[in-house]
Amino acid sequence: MAESSxxxxxxxxxxxxxxxxxxxxxxxxEMNGKxxxxxxxxxxxxxxxxxxxTDTDIVFSKVKAKSARVITFEQFNQALTExxxxxxxxxxxxxxxxxxxxxxxxxxPANVGVTKVAKAAAVDRLTDTSKxxxxxxxxxxxxxxxxxxxxxxxxxxxSGYVASYKGSGTYDDKVKNx
Length: 178
Known about the structure:
Strand order of the largest sheet: 1-2
Structural class: mainly alpha
Radius of gyration: 34 Å
Order of helices and strands: HEHHEHHHHH
Distance between the termini: 110 Å
Oligomer: single chain
Number of strands: 2
Helix content: 40-55%
């Protein structure tokens, strides 16, 4: 392989970045099929016409060992050698491979489309404590801050005062006189 325009060290750096993406245990020496497909998609190796996601999956299966689930950097280069002529039709194999390396060098896994927090009017309406009624209203103070445990539970009054006790004197007086 001629290394005229792109250094293999740069290609290997991109390989390592994609190899560890999404896997905390990955070392960067081997890449799984999911990350290979992500590399092909993020680096625009998959163009939808010449190379599809199915093509990348087939090539990945071809270059990996029968029982393995990952490919090494050497196998990765084999895979790119097979994909290059499909991606750049009409170019020589070497030229197509160099163009493919050019797409990959300097790229990192993109986090586009990562789920964001939904901020809808319905959520605002449901979490506005000033509109709460009934027992739920008692759980928050005037500013809308929660009262914590005192807002959730009825804490018994242990002062000894009995509200509806009718009688003269104390309970002890009643017991002694009886």
